Amino acid sequence: MNALELPVGPQPAGKQPAAVPAGRVAGSTGAAKWGVRLIGLGYLALLLGMPVALVFIRAFEQGITGILNAISKPAFQHAFWLTLTITAIAVPLNTIFGITAALAVVRRRFPGRNLLNALIDLPFALSPVVIGLSLLLVYGRNGFLGPILADSHLQVIFSVPGMVLATIFVSLPFVAREVMPVLREVGTDQEEAAYTLGASHWRTFWQVTLPSIRWGVVYGIVLTTARALGEFGAVIIVSGRLAGKTETLTLYVESRYESFDLVGAYTASIALALMAFAVLIFMNILQAQRSRKENV
Predict the structure, then answer these.
(1) Residue 87: CB partners within 8 Å, gap ≥ 6?
(2) Backbone dihedral region of 17: left (phi > 0), alpha (psi from -120 to 50 degrees) or beta?
(3) Which of 2, 113, 165, 228 has the smallest count of CB within 10 Å of its CB?
(4) Residue 248: which pLDDT band, with cuts at 50, 70 and 90?
(5) How many domains in the chain?
(6) CA–CA distance from 106 to each of 46, 47, 56 (Å)?
(7) Does 88 score more than 50 pLDDT?
(8) What is the pLDDT at residue 12?
(9) What percent of the chain lies above the pLDDT cut of 70?
(10) pLDDT digits over 193-227, tens only?
(11) Looking at the structure, do residues 206 and 142 belong to the same domain, yes or no?
């Protein structure tokens, strides 16, 4: 039998086994791999690539002038900066909460630990619309805390604070869920060694714990940022959709589309898409750097 031929199936006694050329096996394997890749790429192209490409094409149908006019509108600029402002508030707060919650769940044993671990995933289970409605029932004028807030002349619902709360709620789990497995993986040996050498809890956190979980924190921040930039369901409930006051870019897209200002809607969509691409590119750069450091 040729060394490049492989026997296939059981053979009768006294007969040489049938063989299949190795080249044919390799060819079949290669064809299967390319088939799987083409199916995956085609699926992504239909669901993601084509719709996003059409948004860019439609936005430039009237040339660059239409886009520049859409960008120069005060409502667009306010929505853009409000989106960035809400994200800039929500991400640091969720980062602090996520690290604290991860340390509490992984490193501590206390009553209610399992409940805290389950509540962290609550935003994953609830619809954003339900989250917005819940905030309305608590902080609205007729809500649980409504009279107290009214007496203090504080407005949460239909204002920026309510939008920040909604964004924090929906993006809350990402940092915690990225940090927890890293904490379990690194263990407690280095921290215990630092305590033995006389380091305080605070110094141990900054010099031992945080450097060891930094990649989990970074990935959590990236995911939180992406989620905060694209939030719609919870924000639309608590914002009131006041143009130039409580309208983020996602709400601006809907309002422009409903007003038949398609160029304005497409332009805002492009702005959101570019921010999302920037987040993805940043995450890929970080992953490449991490892989490079681990291989050194």
Answers:
(1) 167, 225, 228, 229
(2) beta
(3) 2
(4) very high
(5) 2
(6) 41, 38, 45
(7) yes
(8) 55
(9) 90
(10) 888 888 888 999 999 999 999 989 999 999 999 99
(11) yes
Pairing of strands 5-7, 19-21: antiparallel
Is residue 15 one of the residues assigned to a domain? no
Domain that holds residue 54: 22-59
Same domain, 44 and 186: no
- On whether both 139 and 31 belong to a single domain, the answer is no
Higher-confidence residue: 89 or 283? 89
Q: Please report where in the chains the tokens 């007969």 appear, as a residue.
A: 15
CA 118, CA 132: separation in Å to the nearest integer? 20
Pair 184, 259 in one domain: yes
Question: Contact, 249 vs 195, CB < 8 A?
Answer: no
- Per-residue tokens: 227: 């989620």
CA distances from 122 to 97, 125, 127, 216 (A): 15, 5, 10, 20
**Long-range contacts: 149-157, Cβ < 8 Å, 24+?**
156/238, 157/238, 157/240
| Residue 5 resides in a domain | no
The model carries a pTM of: 0.81
3-state helix, strand, coil in the chain (%, to 5): 75, 0, 20
In terms of domains, do 192 and 272 share one? yes
Residues 41-80: pLDDT tens digits?
788 778 777 888 888 888 888 788 888 888 999 999 999 9
